[in-house]
UniProtKB/TrEMBL annotation, chains A, B:
Belongs to the LysR transcriptional regulatory family. One of its GO terms (cellular component) is protein-DNA complex. It comes from Sinomicrobium weinanense. It comes from the Bacteria. Keywords: DNA-binding, Transcription, Transcription regulation. GO terms for molecular function: DNA binding; DNA-binding transcription factor activity. This is LysR family transcriptional regulator. CDD domains: PBP2_LTTR_aromatics_like.
Length: 296, 296
DNA sequence: CTTTTTCATACCGAATAAGTATTAATAGAT
DNA sequence: ATCTATTAATACTTATTCGGTATGAAAAAG
């Protein structure tokens, strides 16, 4: 089917008058006549009955008009949807995050969803380690993970920083408000997590302990922050975790904010090349992340 | 959107290789490159990511490919449906008929429906007079009506001929087997129908009576053949009707086939110009009506 | 019978598409 | 590191299509 012939025909079918239809199409009448003839040739049928005075649709023309209108509407709708995709107003955004961070992200997410209602958000919880993989492979668009992280070729932005917190069972009677206070903890058990899950975070905590000349007696390793808190609650030991690990948890424990230590836990967000998913650009805008990001 | 650009794109999206896609499209590679560029310009977006070795779809391209395939399939389906219409294999056929004729028509109709299952049949019962109007105006395609008829500009075919029948109440004791026998009827009431409903038929019957030197004493006029039969059954009079007026009726009457009279009742079918509805042509073929029809 | 309306045809120039030859860039091989 | 092969883009030419002007034909309106 030629360029605009179907469109020409549909307009003509509305007007049932070559001259008027041509005017509407901003062309002259002869090209329109020929276009319709071509269409009729291609479909091997008469679409219009011209009896020198009146133009009427044949049954085939009637049908073509009906279907053609739908088809053309479909075409233009498709075009506009494509444009939406390009401008990141439609599509999918796959976000991965470490569990404890969802509450901090929520306000941004809410704003984004209100602004881009046609974007389908996919959120999954993964370990720091897994997220790096997903983003590198393009299966996720942006990951919120606990830094610091060493990943080549990914864009980095420090989304959020917060102090570490020492968590102890309720029955712990001391106070920890300066670095020397760590000494009281020497004979207590320590609950940790496997280093491979989040090397940066693990090393950061180790550094804190070293600074305080505190050498934790690790007896348990668990995989989730909230499980650490539960272990502490049961009196099985103490731990140092990022503040947000306590978000939304009701636990009968004591907490000591380690804000007298310069080390802070950082939630970084990592993402791949912007061009891969236009939605990502708009999401970053909502996070107030400028496009000039640091590459490692 | 230009001529084939969408199709070009969809094939390219299948191949993800300009050279191969061009081969599949029976064009060379440069025109394809340009076609895609044009499409991208029109949609103001990148549809493909070319990294010198591999071609991959962007999200927008992915979407366009999906919708585009559907759209193109729709387009070609539309074309083939149009062709079906032109060849009378799809569409509507509006048949009108006088009630008494449906049983004679049924075998043809059955065959036609089996052969053209996509054709929607519309049958309505009308008087002779009304049918002429409907066919002239194009609201019906073909009408089966009781002739003879004088209608300018319509195509005519004598579909079926049958003898007239004299119907009398059960208690009539005579016999009518030759023209002189009509004399016995002189003193009986006659049940007729208004002349304007079917002038030709009415006049034919009048002619029969004149021939037999029988001058019927009309006391009732009713509008339907079956009502005439019922009136006769009740002993209210006699009547002369076409044979098929008795089809499917169980009536306690006496009947005398008037086959000693040359006059026959004719069911004519009338129809408008063939081009108005391609289905009509196929229907006429099923009726074994050649295309060379008599025009009045 | 003339005029007007309206679609079709003939012809021309402009725009667009396709082909050929070549370039640029990169991946893989030597 | 250099060379070769692959692949898409670019430059340029040719062919096709498209739209415009002028005109014709047929029938309705005055």
């Amino acid at each position: 089917m030629k360029k605009n012939n179907l469109y020409y025909f549909c307009v003509l079918a509305d007007e049932l008058h070559f001259g008027n239809a041509a005017k509407k199409l901003h062309i002259t009448q002869p090209p329109l006549s020929r276009a319709i003839q071509q269409l009729e040739e291609e479909l091997e049928c008469l679409l219009l009955k011209r009896d020198q005075r009146n133009v009427t649709l044949t049954p085939a023309g009637e049908y073509l008009k009906q279907r053609g209108d739908v088809l053309l509407a479909n075409l233009s709708e498709m075009k506009s949807e494509v444009k939406k995709i390009v401008h990141g107003q439609k599509g999918e955004l796959h976000i991965t995050l470490v569990g404890s961070i969802i509450q901090r992200l929520m306000p941004y997410l809410k704003r984004f969803i209100r602004k881009y209602p046609s974007v389908k958000i996919k959120i999954s919880q993964y370990t720091t380690r897994e997220q790096i993989q997903l983003i590198k492979s393009g299966d996720a668009d942006i990951g919120f993970l606990r830094g610091p992280i060493f990943a080549r070729g990914l864009n980095l932005y420090d989304f959020y920083k917060e102090p570490f917190v020492l968590v102890t069972p309720r029955h712990f009677k001391g106070t920890v408000s300066k670095i020397e206070d760590f000494q009281q903890l020497s004979n207590m058990s320590y609950i940790s997590f496997p280093r491979y899950l989040a090397r940066g975070l693990h090393d950061q905590i180790t550094r804190i302990c070293n600074m305080a000349a505190y050498y934790p007696h690790v007896i348990h390793e668990v995989h989730q922050l909230d499980l650490i808190v539960r272990m502490v609650e049961c009196g099985l030991g103490i731990s140092i975790i990022p503040q947000c690990g306590l978000d939304g948890l009701l636990a009968d424990i004591r907490t000591f904010k380690l804000d007298f230590i310069s080390q802070q836990s950082v939630i970084s967000c990592y993402f791949n090349d912007l061009k891969d998913n236009p939605v990502l650009g708009n999401f970053l805008k909502e996070l107030n992340i400028s496009k000039e990001v640091h590459k490692k």
